[in-house]
Each structure stands twice: as C-alpha cells, then as structure tokens.
Amino acid sequence: MSSPSEDSHSPSTEVVTALRVLCLGNELLGDDALGCVVADQLRPFASAEVDILSTPESGFHLLDYVVGLRRLIVVDTVQTGTAPPGTIYQFRDCELALVPGGSPHYVGLCEALALARTLGLPVAEEVIILVVEAVDCLTLGAEMSSQVCSTIPTLVSMVRDMMPAAQDDRVRGGIVRQTVAV
Hints:
By secondary structure, the chain is α/β, with parallel strands linked by helices. It has one domain: 3-Layer(aba) Sandwich (Rossmann fold). It is 21% helix and 22% strand. It has helices at residues 34-42, 63-66, 109-118, 146-149, 152-162; strands at residues 17-24, 50-55, 69-78, 87-92, 126-133, 178-179. A 6-stranded mixed beta sheet has the order 2-1-3-5-4-6. Helix 1 (34-42) links the parallel strand 1 and strand 2. The longest helix has 11 residues, at 152-162. The model is unreliable at 1-13 and 166-182 (pLDDT under 50).
C-alpha cells in the first residue's frame, strides 16, 4: 500500500476524493483485523471516485487520511464492554464528545479530525463511523472471534450502500445497535 502522500492525499492538497473508506486495524491482533478484511472485500466494488484504504496507523498519522476528500467512512473495532461482541455501532464524528485534556500520546481519529478542522485543512465534510464491539484486539497472533467475523457481510453491505451508486441520504445520525447472531 502506498502512503497517503504518494497518493496526493497530503494535508496541503485540494479535495480530490469523493469518498474514502478508511478501515483501521492490525491483522496480527485478533478482532483488530476486522478493518483489513472489510477493506479487502470492498475493493472490488469501489468505483474510481472511491478510495478504499486499510491502515494500522493511529494518532497524528491519521491526519493524512482525513483531508483532501468530501466524505469519509471509517470501519474499526472497539471494546466498550457495554454491549455484546458483534454489536455494530454507527454514528457521525460530530456525535462524539472529545474528552478535554487528552494526551498527545493518545490521539485518535476524532482528535485528528478536530485538529485538521482547527488548522483549516480540507477535512471530510461528512464522517460516518462504523465500529464493532470486539472480544480481543490485543492478543498477538489471535484469530478473529466468531462474533466479530460474522459482522463482515453486514459491514460490507452497509458501506456499499453508502458508496456513490447508493449515496442517497440513507445514512442518518444516531447510534444503530445491531447484534449479529453467531
């Protein structure tokens, strides 16, 4: 995979991409591999105006991935412990409150988006986040859990419905909780 700067998506570029699907995760860390798998399954359906990327990067490195585009869909995993594994959450970045006083060592997607906006960079106007409640995202070499693995077809379908051919305001704010049975 080439870096964002090699793809002309550096922070100084104009808006050039209609839609980027940014799948976050590390294929070596159990359920954290979800983003990598979803990206692989989405690539055959992407038109020329859709950029499908998968990266294990985090922190300020995410700035390169959130500028120079109109829309951004993020796919990731989360461990909140408040819902069964396999629960899919859907929301917009503006629905998340930033925790004040955060450390620069713990910069996440929302902080990167906020920084880009503060700096006046051409950040995505619309950001939709799809995350799945995970079982284990920390064990090196672990397999993806069956609960998280079973959400892949649903996530691929959800993202495909948001791609340009189906870009008709189907996605609205709010959290959608969907538990996928194993």
